[in-house]
Amino acid sequence: MEIPTLENRYPAHLPADGFRRCEPVAAADPELLLWNRDLAAELGIDNESPDSQRTARLWTGTELPEGTVPIALAYAGHQFGQPVPQLGDGRAVVLGQLTDRSGRRHDLQLKGSGPTPFSRGGDGRAALGPVLREFVVSEAMHALGIPTTRALAATTTGETVHRQFGPEPGAVLTRVAASHLRFGSFEYYAHRGDTAGLRCQADTTIEWHFPALRAQPAPMRYLALLRAVMERTATLVNEWLRVGFIHGVMNTDNMTLSGETLDYGPCAFMDHFRPDRVYSSVDRHGRYAWNQQPRMAHWNLARLAECLLPLLDEDDNAAVDAAEAVLGEYPDRFAIGHDHMLARKLGLAATEDDPRCAGSTVSELGERLLALMARHEVDFTNTWRLLMQGPPDNREQVERLREWFDHDEGVEDWLADYAGRLRAQGIEETARIRRMTAANPAVIPRNHRVEMALEAARGGDLAPTRRLIDALQTPYQSPEGFPELALPPGPREIVPATFCGT
Ligand SMILES: Nc1ncnc2c1ncn2[C@@H]1O[C@H](COP(=O)(O)OP(=O)(O)OP(=O)(O)O)[C@@H](O)[C@H]1O
Ligand SMILES: [Mg+2]
Predict the structure, then answer these.
(1) Which residues does the annotated region (Disordered) include (predicted)?
(2) Strand partners, 107
């Protein structure tokens, strides 16, 4: 395996206390389980012999690629609303960056490679189940077209880790990310009252993720940064809602500045629709339920804004006013994105009220459909695909949907309004299907399917995990070779709770 020489840009771009040098711990018996050939090729890694012993040594941290400068990053965070002044990578090290074919830089990070100065009593390890889960779900997310960190490799260490449900094989995930800068990275300096550290962190974020803002003078640049992060975050959360994704631990330490989804702990994709659906076993009060995610993203953005205050204005009140003005833009910014998202899912063109149509607006149509779906707890993914089985004014299709929604009296009215809106916008059936195919996945990593695959993997059989990963590569097509993947769980298959497994 040939790997281009890594370069670690963090030490030159962060204050000295923003990271700690930290060697990964050599694994007793490294073994490669999963290897992402396509991603490796994008990163210029030669794929000739991906299952060689050296590959396993490299992606457990037992041997280090050339140019590696292993570091654990410092960060703080708000966890379930409570401030934690210091967290940091307690079981991960960034090795360095590689540049992909299109010139974009990516961190290579080993997650589960041993204790770091931030381990706070933890063992610094990761268990096989959560590592495979992050591999499967993050790659599914990427295939869905949603910004996310990626998974390059999953390895086992040959050691055992002890978790909630007993011993598990120790494992390491090689994660690829635009960066590992988090809202919590800013909170780390804010807690210390380190304004110079904050400024450095903000300028690095601009340099890496929002280079167009570089030309703006301070303090406007930092306000523009807040607005840009707000916009990316709103976009990301709308994308999660589009596919029924529930992150599960939207703490500020799990929110990236790049706008990528980070930390696939107790996350889940929803089967039967309930807007307040929660899977995470640690989210007892539903703080991060599916329909709370927009609000919690706003709350998290407010924590980020608080950190930026010293950079916005020397006068405290003026700084607060400036930050509040940007935060105040979030509800509209989110709502516009939400309307567009619902329009895409319905195969409609725009969300502005169309004066040619007397029926409801596109967003009202979408909300009414969601309300119907919630009332009957129908499968989220399959409802949208069912809408694609025929025109909304076709008799058989009307019948099909009446049955799907338990003969709810609202169905026919809704379908008539939907058909009216399509007519008013002049959208032909083929165009509707084309649009809807691009916005509504046929397959998602359903919880019970993920659990079944992981169970087999724990028993030594990786074939179901590989099959699942393959099928999730083309989520907008019906899974010809894996039809069960399109089915919701049966009553005995439902996985009601997910666990971090940390
Ligand atoms: N086994 C462990 N040993 C040491 N620290 C840990 C361990 N598990 C989690 N932590 C630390 O606890 C904090 C919260 O964990 P959380 O599950 O949100 O993150 P994570 O999944 O470890 O990492 P990431 O956010 O990078 O995906 C982090 O600082 C993390 O590094
Ligand atoms: Mg985390």
Answers:
(1) 105-124
(2) 97, 177
253 catalytic, yes or no? yes
Contact between 282 and 235 (Cβ < 8 Å): no
Measured between alpha carbons, how far is 425 from 348 in angstroms, rounded to an integer? 8
Of 107, 253, 271, 283, which residue is the catalytic one?
253
Give, for all 502 residues of the chain, the pLDDT tens digit: 899 999 999 999 999 999 999 999 999 999 999 999 999 999 999 887 777 789 999 999 999 999 999 999 999 999 999 999 999 999 999 999 999 999 999 999 999 999 999 999 999 999 999 999 999 999 999 999 999 999 999 999 999 999 988 999 999 999 999 999 999 999 999 999 999 999 999 999 999 999 999 999 999 999 999 999 999 999 999 999 999 999 999 999 999 999 999 999 999 999 999 999 999 999 999 999 999 999 999 999 999 999 999 999 999 999 999 999 999 999 999 999 999 999 999 999 865 555 444 455 888 999 999 999 999 999 999 999 999 999 999 999 999 999 999 999 999 999 999 999 999 999 999 999 999 999 999 999 999 999 999 999 999 999 999 999 999 999 999 999 999 999 999 999 998 888 776 6
Which phi and psi angles does 335 have, rounded to 5°? Answer: -65, -40
Name residue 176's beta-bridge partners.
Answer: 108, 150
Q: How many CA atoms does the CB half-sphere of 426 hold within 13 Å? A: 1
Does residue 354 line the site of ligand 1, with CB under 6 A? no
Surface-to-core class of residue 490, CB atoms within 10 Å of its CB (0-12 exposed, 13-18 middle, 19+ buried): exposed
Angle between helices 195-209 and 220-242 (to 10 degrees): 60
Cα(11)–Cα(25) distance, integer angstroms: 21
In the reported structure, the alpha carbon of residue 254 is separated from the centroid of ligand 2 by a whole-number distance in angstroms of: 5
Distance CA 242, CA 239 (A): 5
Task: Count helices and strands (H / E) in the chain.
Answer: 17, 12
Does 254 show up as a binding residue in the annotation? yes
Q: What's the predicted TM-score (pTM) here?
A: 0.97
Facing residues of 120 across strands? none
Residue 400 is assigned to a ligand binding site = no
Q: How many whole angstroms from 244 Cα to the centroid of ligand 1?
A: 25
Could you give the angle at which helices 183-191 and 195-209 cross, rounded to 10 degrees?
160
